[in-house]
Amino acid sequence: MSKIGINLLFIKPKLSGGSETYALKLLKEISQLDKDNEYILYINKDCENIKFHVGENFTKRVLNFKPSSVYLRYFWEQFVLPFYVFIDKIDLLHSLGYVTPLLTTSKKVVSILDINYKGHGNNMGSSKRILLGTMVNLSAFFSNKIITISEFSKQQITKYTKTRANKISVTLLSGSSDVIQINTIKKELILKKYNINTEYIIAFGSPSPHKNIVRLVESVEGIIKNRPDLKLVLVGHQQRDEDLLNCIQKLQLADEILFTGFVPDEDIQPLLTCAKVFVFPSLYEGFGIPLLDAQACGVPVISSNAGSLPEVGGSDVFYFNPEDVIEISEVISRALELSDTGEISDNVKNGLTNREKFSWAKTAEQTLKVYSELLN
Question: In sequence order, what are the residues at sequence separation of 6 or more whose Cβ sits closer than 8 angstroms to the Cβ of residue 211?
Fold first, then answer.
């Protein structure tokens, strides 16, 4: 039996993104597969009440700080966490949030999900970009093994951190849930709950500039104005994004765009299933969990061709250049036309086939293989 530490100090409960989904889903599946090794989850004070779906061989150690800034997190991660790793006699430490403590003598695995300080570089402050780039490069150098989530990200890591390729293992992710349960009654209730009474295009709203929502709004202007029965639904909190709000006001689309506000996980699948099409316009992604969620729900998928998205979505997705508003509009129009005529069914069916290639159980199996190679 070995003692394995899981560094989760990066998690912020009030934020929900790909990194948090990756951590929670991975741990749940590892718990199902590994009943022998002992696991210690290192979490910050804000995460004390998070429910981790893990077994009896998992325990939590709460470090007494709140991650109010990345600088505070790095301080605790680099100078306090190594002390606990030492007294807990950890054999292997897996850091799931890009950065590992450099001063530990245990075997080290770090998950670097993408090189976002390059991919999102224009949208980050220079000090944060330099700090993150430095920490990721040091973590890549000092770790025994790097785990990433797509071949695209592996290429980015080798390019920007100068890490040899055989030090990096790719463990593909999956969707928000591997279990799809939709019923007609719930779909009707969900639409009523969010005051949706027309056909709609759906996308996930976000204040992050790399999610490219302003260009999406610009691209659907002509489509929506020519189809009074069609709206754009943006799932998630309505952020005070001045560029987005100004764009909506300028194009006079306030009545044609619906912000759902916060949506619980159980409502996502019905909202996707009822949509005409799902659009994922991101400028950069290390994986793209929402794309698989849409394929699982049988909705036609229209996606950016940036980053890892073609690798994840497969051949039966309508791809576009995310920086070209006219191309985005043309691709959405073509998909809607095929959807209207029913000629899109084979595309949706093949999307479901692509979705079946991914599962969190596979992610966990591949991760445990990395642990086993180092521990043995």
Answer: 204, 205, 281, 282, 283
- In this structure, what token pair is assigned to residue 45? 């004070």
**Token representation of residue 154:** 């592996």
Taking alpha carbons only, the member of 51, 33, 30, 3 closest to residue 111 is 30
Whether the model clears a pTM of 0.70, i.e. scores above it, the answer is: yes
The CA-based angle 8-132-290, given to 5 degrees, is: 60
DSSP-based three-state secondary structure for 370: helix
CB atoms closer than 10 angstroms to residue 13: 14
Q: Render pLDDT for 299-332 as a digit per residue (tens, 0 to 9).
A: 999 999 999 999 999 998 999 999 999 999 999 9
Please write the tens of the pLDDT for every residue from 25-82. Answer: 999 999 999 999 999 999 999 999 888 999 999 999 999 999 888 899 999 999 999 9
Residues listed for the chain:
376
Among 313, 302, 304, 301, CA closest to 284: 304
Would you give the distance in Å from CA 44 to the centre of its chain? 21
Per-residue pLDDT for 146 more than 70? yes
The DSSP secondary structure of 44-102, one letter per residue, reads EGGGTT------TTEEEEEES---SSHHHHHHHHHHTHHHHHHHTT-SEEEE-SS---S
Distances (CA, A) of 212 to 27, 122, 248, 282, 317: 31, 13, 14, 5, 18
Residue pLDDT, tens place only, 173-210: 999 888 766 666 677 888 899 999 999 999 998 778 88
Helix (H, G, I), strand (E, B) or coil at 19: helix
**Nearest alpha-carbon partner for 150 in 345, 273, 317, 284:** 284
Residue indicated by tokens 């999102």: 120
Measured CA distances, 375 to 93, 300, 371 (Å) = 11, 44, 6
Residue 346 CA to its chain's centroid (Å): 27
319 closest CA partner among 353, 351, 271, 359:
351
By C-alpha distance, which of 309, 300, 310, 280 is closest to 349? 300
